[in-house]
Amino acid sequence: MRSLRRVPGDLVLTLTTLLLVLAWDASGLDLPVSRALAHARGFPWRDSWLTYGLLHEGGRLLAALGVLALLLHALLPRPPQAGANPAPRWRAFGAVLLNLGAVPALKRSSLTSCPWDLAEFGGSARYVPHWDWSVGDLGPGHCFPSGHAVAGFAFIALYFVWRRKRPAWARRALWLSLAAGLALGLSQVLRGAHYVSHVAWSAWLCWTLSAAASALSRALAQARRRNDKPTSTSKSTLMPDIHTR
Question: Has this prediction a pTM greater than 0.85?
Answer without folding.
Answer: yes
